[in-house]
Amino acid sequence: MSPLTSTRLHLEAHLLRDILNRQAWLDGENSWLVNMFPNSEPILLRRVTPASTDEWVLVNGRCDHTALCVWPVTAVVLSHTHEMFEPLVTNTAKVDYRCVYDRQWELLTCIWSSPAQQVEDYGAPRHLAIAPAHLRLVCLHGPESIGKAASRQAFWTTSEKDVVKFAVFDGLGHLIEPLIDFSLKLEVLVRYYHPELNDTDVYLILLKRVAEDSALEDVTEDADFQELLDRSDRAKIEDNKPKRASQAKYRKAFLKGLEPLKRKVCLEQKAEHDRMTCEARARGPTYYMHVEEEWTVALVSNWAPPFSRMLLDSFNARWRLSWLFGDVSRSWNLHGYFASCIACLRIAWESHTFYTGLPCDIPGVFEDPVLDHGRGRGRGRGGRARGGLAGAAVGDADLAVGRGRGGRRGRGVARGRGVDVALAPALGALEVVAAVAPAAETDVAPLAPVSPETAAADEVAEADIRRSSSSSSSSSSGS
Q: pLDDT by residue (tens digit) across 60-102?
């Protein structure tokens, strides 16, 4: 033992002592089962042997692939619909360890919930929303076995080797051995442990395995963001590129293996999409652009993807939209009341179409005359614009155009990442000005192509500017 290792926890000794106390020498070889637990997800654990009086403990993570680090919790009776727990913060609370090498355990899948969420979503008393309260663990499901709880979360980040090993350990090797793709093996395991789930629910579980981080990629590649980085930070980002490329390749292969399931999900989404058919959904946002007060949550929900939830956050002046594959919000103080709503709908529909294959056929979500988007470089008169929707016009003022990845050329000298915002009589000048966004919100969804008429009009306008500039120059030289 060296000075560096003298303070290190030697969990193998804890494991051997636990095996000795239980006289479970044959089961001790299965101590690899700790790899089936997450390192960061909130999970409660207890032993379920008949003579056990074990209490629920919070799993903090794995230690040396040998034991689980746990913390004591106490049950809180606040809701009639969900169990709630609080971590103990008294002087008597201390960290402990659990060695898992058999099936005699049960888990509770939880989420951390704020007092407001406990009231709004989980049936806690109303006074918790205003009185001082604690962050609590809310149980989403009842006690489950290791396999059932882990499969509900696509086995978290457990390696493919350990997932297959666990399936064989649980007597399911014959179900997955004929399969090659890991995504198909996961699908079989999820359907075995949860036969009540439909295709969409199974698909959503499997997607947890390859959570998308494109927003982070967009931030790191942003020119304005890179200007603020130190040289060492840039080096770290560059060194991490091969890892991100490998993850992107794995994600692409994983999603390719889910294509048969994706087609089934598309049929379910199409059925719900047809069920939502109504006059407002058929007409789309453009028809209701003349009166702002008509844009209620009930109306806008008709234009969202199936199984979505729209929220009008008047306190923060934002439209909020949650759909099967994510959530997004946009401020109408920055983008305008109509533009912020349509931006949320576009982002949601693009994500929904990507994952399900169901296209958006609601007029005005993408083919909207209010927001005629284009990307490219712009030159002319104006200031520097930075933001997600970079450019607007009022009256006869020039259009400010953001610097993007396209070949579009527009009027104005604004040089910032973003898109053009075309004038629309229905919005008016003030609404168009409000559509200019700051640099913090650059995650605008891919936009509709620029119409030939708009491009032609911009070319004519540029020609007029060049002629006026040349005539003024010649008159100055003549004088």
A: 999 888 999 999 999 998 888 899 999 999 998 999 999 999 9
Would you list the DSSP string of 65-125? TTEEEEEEEEEE---SSS-EEEE--STT---EEE---SS-EEEEEEEEE-HHHHHHHH---
pTM recorded for the entire structure: 0.74
Tokens of 466: 């060049």
Tokens found for residue 129:
């929303």
Query: Parallel, antiparallel, or unpaired for β 408-411 and 376-379?
Result: parallel
Helix axes of 259-275 and 199-207: crossing angle, nearest 10 degrees: 130
DSSP, res 451: P
Beta carbons within 8 Å of 40's beta carbon, 6+ residues apart: 61
Element of type H or E holding 374: none
- Strand duo 326-331 + 318-323: pairing: antiparallel
Q: What is the pLDDT of residue 370?
A: 46
Q: Is the dihedral of CA 12, 18, 22, 23 positive or negative?
A: positive
pLDDT digits (tens, 9 = 90+) for 271-330: 999 999 999 999 999 889 888 888 999 999 999 999 999 999 999 999 999 999 999 999
The predicted pLDDT at position 410 comes to 40
The answer for 455, left when phi > 0, alpha when psi is -120 to 50, beta otherwise, is: alpha
How far apart (Å, rounded) are the C-alpha atoms in residues 313 and 327? 14
Where does 289-400 show beta strands of DSSP type E? Answer: 309-313, 318-323, 326-331, 376-379
Q: Which residue has the higher pLDDT, 216 or 267?
A: 267
- Is residue 85 within 8 Å of 76, Cβ to Cβ? yes
Residues 6+ apart with CB under 8 A from 395: 429
Domain ranges of the chain: 11-158, 269-356
Q: How many residues does the chain have?
A: 479
CA distance 70 to 333: 46
